[in-house]
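Weekly sync, protein design subgroup
Attendees: M.S., D.O., the rotation student, P.L. (late)

Item 1: inverse folding check
M.S. brought a backbone from last month's batch and wanted to see whether the design step gives back something sensible before we order anything. D.O. pointed out we never logged the input encoding, so this time it goes straight into the notes. Structure tokens as presented (310 positions):
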């Protein structure tokens, strides 16, 4: 058990480090090719921050532990909407961008409802290739809307760019990819072993340990951003991550390996939807999430985790 825990922590550390290297290398190559900062932010960086969850979910689905894959996404979204936003708001009241209230939160809520309908649409909960393809199409629509709404934003001065050596960029890209693959396998194998040792389901491990582990960077980043007064952008990124988690991760994973789901309950999926509705309501009032609202979100998260563990 101790060895499994050490290897699990090592696996998530390797995955997170690999995601950073992969993103850094990809951004370096994109800048060399003259791609705008806006496009880089909306695509490479957004995908890069979702790579830990994606690799863990993909490896889980391929190895037949679909509950771990879906639990990772559902748990990460609840973690993002309740704990990250809650803790950040408790540090400093958070100003929310209008685009976040009008586009990001509604789209994340729609994606959550669609996932709920797919999982509980019959006696056997599963995500088929056709349903996964629907998620991918929704992702393309989201990206189109995002690009269209941001097309008038001027690009950063190209003179300010510090170009990375192309060989270094390629090396970072390949190194990051290898770390993601190796780290994800180690992480999933040991998370599954711990679940069996403790007598709990893959779903609970996915909703708690796996989801928390892959979302820790967003928690740290958002709290620091809140302290520095950049909360609007941070929350936009968190919500964008929620959309990518469902549409990109489960969409692509489901197309590659259709998922049979056994341990993810309607309550887990409902909590994901409720967290988005609360976040939308709190954000809609004065475009600000107050400290007390952050406390409410954080307490709901603690209560939900307590219920899962119990």
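Designed sequence read out in the meeting:
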């Amino acid at each position: 058990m101790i060895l499994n825990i050490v290897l699990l922590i090592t696996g998530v550390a390797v995955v997170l480090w690999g995601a950073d290297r992969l993103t850094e290398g990809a951004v370096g190559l994109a800048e060399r090719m003259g791609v705008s900062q806006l496009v880089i932010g909306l695509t490479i960086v957004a995908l890069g921050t979702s790579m830990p969850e994606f690799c863990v979910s993909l490896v889980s689905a391929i190895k037949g532990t679909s509950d771990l894959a879906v639990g990772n996404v559902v748990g990460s979204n609840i973690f993002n909407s309740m704990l990250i936003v809650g803790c950040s708001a408790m540090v400093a009241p958070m100003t929310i961008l209008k685009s976040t209230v009008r586009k990001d939160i509604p789209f994340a809520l729609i994606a959550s409802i669609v996932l709920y309908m797919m999982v509980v649409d019959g006696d056997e909960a599963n995500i088929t290739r056709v349903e996964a393809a629907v998620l991918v199409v929704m992702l393309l629509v989201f990206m189109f809307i995002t690009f269209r709404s941001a097309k008038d934003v001027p690009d950063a001065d190209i003179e300010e760019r510090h170009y990375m050596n192309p060989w270094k960029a390629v090396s970072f890209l390949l190194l990051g990819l290898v770390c993601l693959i190796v780290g994800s396998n180690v992480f999933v194998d040991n998370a599954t072993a711990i679940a069996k040792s403790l007598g709990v389901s893959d779903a609970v491990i996915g909703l708690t340990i796996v989801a928390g582990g892959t979302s820790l960077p967003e928690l740290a980043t958002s709290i620091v951003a809140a302290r520095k007064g950049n909360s609007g952008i941070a929350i936009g990124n968190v919500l964008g991550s929620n959309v990518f988690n469902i549409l990109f991760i489960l969409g692509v994973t489901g197309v590659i390996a259709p998922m049979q789901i056994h341990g993810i309950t309607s309550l887990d999926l409902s909590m994901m939807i409720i967290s988005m509705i609360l976040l939308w309501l709190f954000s809609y009032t004065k475009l600000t999430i107050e400290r007390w609202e952050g406390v409410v979100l954080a307490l709901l998260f603690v209560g939900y985790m307590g219920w899962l563990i119990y």
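Discussion: The first strand starts at residue 94 and ends at 95. The chain has ten helices and four strands.
Action: P.L. to compare against the previous round before Friday.
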